Amino acid sequence: MSTSSRPTQSHLLDPTPNTHPFSIDGKPAIVTGAGSGINLCFASLLLSRSCNVLFTDLALRPEAQTVIDTYSSKIEGKSRAIFQKTDVTDWKQLSRMFEVAEKEFGGTDIVCPGACIYDPYWTNFWHPPGSAASKDVIDAGHYASIDISITHPIRTTQLAIASFLKPSHGQKVTLTNPKRVAITSSVAGQCAHFCTPLYVASKHASQVGIRVNGVAPGLDKTPLWTDHPENMKFVDTKKDVWVMPEEVAEAMLRLLEDPEMGGGTILEVGAKQTRKVAMFNDPGPSGAGHTVSNMSNQFEEVLEWLGEDGWGYVKL
């Protein structure tokens, strides 16, 4: 194949990226992890554009409850928010999200599998199943961190596509009736981090009118960081620059609506900077909001864990 006839990256990502415009206005949506942080900001942004939104999470932070209370009334012409308690590691509960959206909203056009965790000690590579800090069960055959950050978005996307193709109500997806999936990834998917290998690995894993895109934020100022002292040890609050969750939500909105954001596009979001991640030979994240200053300082903590007698061996 000659260079001139070789398909461009945009062709590889989406054969018809600019043909069918998509507006989120009035579209029903499902957002996992909407109880806080980036996904709360994104769900709120959807509500501001007349979308009905199903918030799913294990619980709601007070600020999320306020949003639910504000948009809870079933009033003609007004956005509506519903909370569905959901454990995203449970496939039956994931399926239930779509059943609720069908019942309450008549279906869904936008799905965001955004729930994630950041290698807490209770499901962490350096705290193997059965060790004192871990809640992963030795004979379960899986890790909660992987279930939440990899398996959940995969399964949710499968369920979304199935729902789009054969909805219980309304019209199926077509090129003129498009649908959208926006996956929340991280700049960690472009890097390697000794201290949090499961999280980093999970973020590397991520023609019918369905477009699946992703957003990769940097150091986002959300409870994922600020509510967890073990994560804040990585951050030098005097030097490191936060990415605001509103910036990430705006990038997610752009992925849904911008005709130039062909399927498979990933937007990297730093502090006041957003760029497309290249499919091949991407230079990686750089600039404000992409790094934490104290990452290397935490190597000693991991090495201390490894120095414990019998690390990794658990009596069955």
Structure description:
This protein has 316 residues and is an alpha/beta fold. It has a single domain, classed as NAD(P)-binding Rossmann-like Domain (Rossmann fold, 3-Layer(aba) Sandwich). Helix content is 32%, strand content 13%. It contains ten helices and eight strands. The chain has helices at residues 9-13, 37-48, 62-70, 91-105, 144-165, 197-204, 223-226, 229-232, 245-257, 299-306; strands spanning 29-32, 53-57, 81-85, 110-113, 179-184, 210-217, 266-270, 273-276. Helix 2 packs across helix 9 (245-257), helix 4 (91-105) packs parallel to helix 5 and helix 5 (144-165) runs parallel beside helix 6 (197-204). The longest helix is centred in the middle third of the chain and has 22 residues, at 144-165. It is globular and about 60 Å long. The protein starts with 8 loop residues before the first helix and ends in a 10-residue tail after the last helix.
Approximately how much beta-strand content do the residues carry?
5-15%
Q: Runs with pLDDT <50, length 5+?
A: 1-19
Report the principal-axis shape. globular
Strand order of the largest sheet: 3-2-1-4-5-6-7-8
Q: Please summarize the sheet with the most strands.
A: 8 strands, mixed
Can you say what the CATH homologous superfamily is?
Answer: NAD(P)-binding Rossmann-like Domain
